[in-house]
């Protein structure tokens, strides 16, 4: 299954790369989740669906754009064709494709793959088998307040709590692509990643990263401090706090 | 002169790339500015000095690591061999080499070049001749509060003012490499970039970016709202607010 996800990610990479130089920011209508779909999202999604079709559509598809495609399969591919669309269109080299395979809820996801489309780095995980960055095992880091790196969604829509955390961290950063920021916590680059804002973040942005983070030794919680669970659905959204070192949760909640 | 700077940046790129996979985080002692020098900084600086030497040392050199090298030249090359060392060592694809040529102060800088070492993008400027990204002209964007992007240094060392701005922006981001973040304002990707923190930021981080931003139509101010001026010196530091649209300064100061 990871091989199929790699192939799909490669197809997205090629599709987006082939359109470089074009204006990919035209809005193409509204996605199933109410977010405007831009041309780059559409191109990426088409590449995913085509690749899946070449393989006989072995998975259903849940997407922000196309809603739910029932291929009569047991498992569903949860996709964010372009995570970090704003970055991609602005020329900020930080955006990805995020792919997860599960049945009905976040906790039954069995496979996850995130490909950084700006530099090619691939994170992947199979449930129970650890997490990997470009094929090498990754794990979360132990929290050290003097060297803390917190990834925080900030801005006018953010909960004041986010600014408190930004004042607590040695380094407070925000890169603007949720799946890659979860991967940064999973790989021990950051201690924490929180989005507590309106609108909340979508399931499709979190599905692959949540598995990868958990397999690397971290955990993702809702803002009440319970382990995050989400049902598969194009409109599913939640706030969350992802940490590498679980003892950090008590300090921030 | 821009050709020489391009050649120097290429030498840094090759030197760093050739050492990929090694642990480049060993501390190599203290730089002239009191910041620990890491192996990657040393490797990059050596590549710069070698390239300059091959050309007969036509410039003096001001560096965070080596302090001031007097080659008896009229002009001085102000270098930050690796801007974003933390990112480079953590595997975050956002770090650069920053090169500027001037005499004594920021305002007499005539040439600036910044190369993104993660993806190869080059920003350059010659005073009076505009600013360029990979050879194409760039300019700042007009401020629109509904689409605002503020780059803000946050964390435990930041002035509370920074958190106020983070709550005001539609998007608040921090990528952790000053020269590239100045280039993001210059190229219209962001409206503002502010560092108001202790310790303040170094001249060597700002020299090239300040010229590029000014040539793209923006301005860099100190936190009193005066146009920023800095003397060349390895220990020179300042806080600053860089904006694309000058009318934004009144709203944030």
Could you explain the architecture of this structure?
Two copies of one chain form a homodimer. Chain A is an alpha+beta fold and 253 residues long. The first copy, chain A, has two domains: 2-138, Fructose-1,6-Bisphosphatase, subunit A, domain 1 (Fructose-1,6-Bisphosphatase, Chain A, domain 1, 2-Layer Sandwich); 145-252, D-Maltodextrin-Binding Protein, domain 2 (3-Layer(aba) Sandwich), CATH 3.40.190.80. In chain A, 30% of the residues lie in helices and 27% in strands. Chain A has seven helices and 17 strands. The first copy, chain A, has an eight-stranded mixed sheet with strand order 4-3-5-6-7-8-9-10, with helices on both faces. The longest helix of chain A is centred in the first third of the chain and has 17 residues, at 2-18. The radius of gyration of chain A is 17 Å and the shape is globular. The A-B interface holds A 86, 90-94, 116, 118-119, 121, 149, 152, 154-158, 160, 163, 166-176, 184, 187, 189 and B 86, 90-94, 116, 118-119, 121, 149, 152, 154-158, 160, 163, 166-176, 184, 187, 189.
């Amino acid at each position: 299954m990871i091989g199929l996800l790699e192939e799909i990610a490669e197809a997205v990479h090629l599709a987006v790369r082939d359109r470089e130089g074009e204006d990919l920011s035209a809005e193409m209508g509204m996605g199933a989740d109410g977010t405007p779909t831009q041309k780059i999202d559409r191109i990426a999604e088409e590449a995913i669906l085509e690749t899946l079709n070449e393989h006989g559509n072995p998975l259903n598809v849940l997407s922000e754009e196309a809603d739910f495609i029932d291929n009569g399969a047991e498992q569903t591919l949860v996709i964010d064709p372009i995570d970090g669309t704003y970055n991609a269109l602005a020329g900020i080299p930080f955006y990805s494709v995020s792919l997860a395979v599960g049945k009905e809820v976040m906790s039954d996801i069995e496979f996850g793959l995130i490909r950084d489309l700006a530099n090619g780095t691939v994170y992947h995980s199979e449930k129970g088998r650890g997490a990997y960055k470009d094929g090498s095992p990754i794990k979360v880091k132990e929290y050290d307040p003097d060297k803390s790196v917190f990834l925080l969604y900030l801005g006018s829509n953010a909960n004041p709590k986010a600014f408190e955390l930004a004042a607590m961290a040695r380094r407070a950063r925000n890169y603007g692509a949720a799946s890659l920021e979860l991967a940064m916590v999973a790989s021990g680059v950051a201690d924490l990643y929180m989005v507590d804002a309106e609108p909340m973040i979508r399931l499709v942005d979190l599905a692959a990263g949540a598995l990868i983070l958990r397999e690397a030794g971290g955990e993702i919680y809702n803002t009440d401090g319970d382990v995050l669970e989400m049902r598969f659905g194009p409109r599913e959204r939640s706030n969350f706090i992802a940490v590498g070192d679980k003892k950090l949760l008590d300090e921030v909640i």
